[in-house]
């Protein structure tokens, strides 16, 4: 019996060793083939040594923007990588970023197709964020811009944002000066209410109405942790290892779907019972449903149910936590730099009447506030590695050949801290923008928090307005202090990278009423 067991064990060990040998051999052969293909028509950008099978995937596991920025100092501003069986390049200079985002924008305008697009969301073809640049993408972006993100629409709905900022200030006052508050949580609640009201005229999510155990804001926050490529996206023959991740994504998608279905069904019932168009809310959901495909109407701007939910998801995911994370980083830097806090407070007090609420109109006169926001976005960009792109044909960037089907990443974080571009690159110094006209709107490639070119963030102006008004309101209405035991020097700046680059430990601060 022992002999039989030993024989079985020997066979099992030999089988495992054979499988490992085959897998490693296949990975090496794939790597050699990939490198040969990359260099077949020109020189591929240099990069660090890669591991068998996984290539450079290990570099993307934790705070990849920092690791890649460090490597770029050794291998140059354009660096070649191998992500499993996929080629990739990382760009870390303004000049090369301009070449990719503007000069050759058409070649680099597409997104890589990932499994999460269909497992977690509604497919890349129904998304502005993940979709390829083509007729379908242009249709969705045009509808979104015309119906939701244009300047006129934002001006019409400014009262919504003013109301929610006022509610935030009231909530902080009720918390009392003796109770430190989690800044990001408070601002995220406000941002979620703003976006919900702009989208569907309701500040409270419909999670309870459809039986979900979490709010829409909480669901979006959980989903952020899943927005990473699966193993099968980069090593197709290992896609079997994605089973559990796909199950988690499917579960989250069902929760999201039930929330959106409830909102859509509720609005359709209202549309059926209303007797006059003026009785219907004038919001983004109504605009989308007015374009829904029916048996009687079909035009170039018609939308399917999946397209409607895909666009709504883009707006929700792109707005709720990006605004709150930016405001939190701003408050962190202002608390670390009391001189900047006092200078900003003095500007607001001199430009805004005492007791009056900060409005969009006031922002034109608050130049130091704008400089503070620029400096925050330079040091703490929300998307440190701008959304990945993929080439649809061979191109040349700098002196290097970039084959077709190569993923491209712009290291916005590295560019924002490049000592060749910025003096005192690691210091928070808003005054640096007083002597230059650099802005964040995609025209200056040393500062790209929203990207540039045709894929620049469509919600940039709305996001900036929310962030600037919120920061100004918090600084104007409260005297901010750190809890006992913390000082300016001891504030933790550690980062946590999900879909947005947030502070690892949330900022807790005291908001005292000014004397």
TrEMBL record:
Gene3D superfamilies reported in the protein's UniProt record: Cytochrome P450 (1.10.630.10)
Residues the entry annotates as binding heme: 457
Molecular function terms, GO-annotated: heme binding; iron ion binding; monooxygenase activity; oxidoreductase activity, acting on paired donors, with incorporation or reduction of molecular oxygen
UniProt source species: Adiantum capillus-veneris
InterPro entries: Cyt_P450, Cyt_P450_CS, Cyt_P450_E_grp-I, Cyt_P450_sf
Similarity comment: Belongs to the cytochrome P450 family.
Protein name as it appears in the record: Cytochrome P450
Gene Ontology biological-process entries: secondary metabolite biosynthetic process
UniProt keyword terms in alphabetical order: Heme, Iron, Metal-binding, Monooxygenase, Oxidoreductase
Transmembrane segments: none
Essential cofactor(s): heme
Highest taxon in the source lineage: Eukaryota
Keyword Metal-binding part of the UniProt annotation: yes
